[in-house]
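User: two proteins, same treatment. go.

Assistant:
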Amino acid sequence: MNKALYALFVFVIIFLFYESALSDDTVLAKIGDTKIMQSDFDKTFNTIPKSQKSQYATLEGKRKLLDGMISNKVLAMEASRLKLDEDPLVQHGINMLVEQAMARLAIQHIKEGITIKEDDIKKYYEKNQEEFKQPEKVWASHILVNKKRDAKKILKKIKSGKDFSQLASENSTCISKDQGGDLGWFSRGKMAPAFEKAAFSLKKGETSGVVKSQFGYHIIKLKDRSEAGVMGFRKASKVIEKKIKSQRVKLERIRLKEKLKVKTFYDNLK
């Protein structure tokens, strides 16, 4: 094969590969002559924080994201037509947005470069036991009514075997009735004194008598309880890892300021 034919062969291969790569980048939307490509969508999707990504991972979520991209593009084109981008305040705003985006990327990069050893987590856990102390907690449901006689009638129904959550949904004046009276977990000092005293005196699965508070008349059912203690290492390790990582990011910010010789003139503020 002579050099000319070889060069032509290489060119054809490169062209076909390039054309194939382009064909994978499909058009998702057109705004006049402007196109939003799959690659544009992917880049936008990748900028979404991990904590919010799941809501855009579905087909419906992706459609919403694309609609948002289209709206932004349309409005940006209109702003350009009106020459709003030439306004000094707009230019300053754009610069600020770029700086904020770059700062977020820098923090993400710093976090990805931090490796926290299990020994560091264990040492933190052992030295900071006070941080992981957990108070006594109970998980309760209740039915709240305005009149004592109504509470007594409901209590009789409970004792006869009627479902507590159903009675709460049908009779309670508390917004918790939408969850069958479920109040979730709470520790001491979170509820009305009379209510709290009754709730913490119950055993798991037990139902109280009629309890009066400033809100009305309650019937309380204890679903579960957790005695005071110290959070286990396995559960605490995730909290500790996040805390150590946050501390190291803060130290890195300080180091960068020192490296760049940052000087602040607060007295010049007006």
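Protein 2:
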Amino acid sequence: MRQPLPLTQKRLTGGLLLILAALFLLSLFIGSNPISLFQAMRDALLDTPSVIAMILTEIRLPRTLIAVVTGATLGLCGAAMQGLLRNPLASPGLIGSASGAALGAVCMLYFGLSSTLPMALPAGGVIGALAATLLVYLLAGRDAGTLTLILAGVAINAMALALIALLLNLAPSPYAVREIVLWMMGSIANHSMADFQIMLPGILLGWFLLMGTGRSLDALTLGEETATTMGFSLPLLRWRIFIAIALAVGSAISITGSIGFIGLVVPHLLRPLVNHQPSRLLLASAIGGAILLLAADICVRLFPAGTDIKVGVLTSLVGAPFFLYLIIKSRRYQL
């Protein structure tokens, strides 16, 4: 099968932004009851009290913004992780960030802090992600190779998932179990603008840390020794990317719950279009991740009324077969 031709940065970015803008408007319109978007926007801008204006500003707009920012975070962090580890099968969860964030958020739900303190859930997610990342780094060692980091990440992931299972087993009531399980499925529904504002600071800080890593990741494609001789510090680059992913993914997951495979699928699909250049892949993956999660959330709303399918379940149903395809494809190249 022929590989798609690389596109220029402006053409690719412009095309992806057009798709994202179209999906953004479609997301504001589509729901259990489609609304007149123009009328709702006019009522909201004129501060006219109406049901459709409330639906737009209190339900549709926060949901759409959270989908865009979370998808962009997962896509961007996935591209950074694949560039750092030079492995197209890597994802943000590979170093324990996602599972650590999930454990931190579940602890806040288990002890009831999320219902009393608005910042408890994102704080738990960020602290859990940072702790898991630190454990991976300490377990692997300062000058660890890529394989050692991956193995350390797998070990921390397994430990975090085991602790989550323990908390579920010790939950004081079936209602607590249900709340934790539903959160772990991943959902963008039933969130307010306040939730969006809570998750935004950590995500923006993570994005800021990843902004200047493109040239280092490009140099890393030539090999670790070559990148070092070119003046790039690999330990500093790893710490920067690990902390950025912990902050961004931890903040996003703490609000939406676990949403998997976007950080794996999106960079892999877009990599041929940027000529396999990590610095160009970062921005493209951020926009592509926003597109994929927003499209998945729109698809969830198209299910019949009463069918509550979580968006995390849908992304896993799509991402798991794709992951298997990548494994089979990599085995063919090795044979």
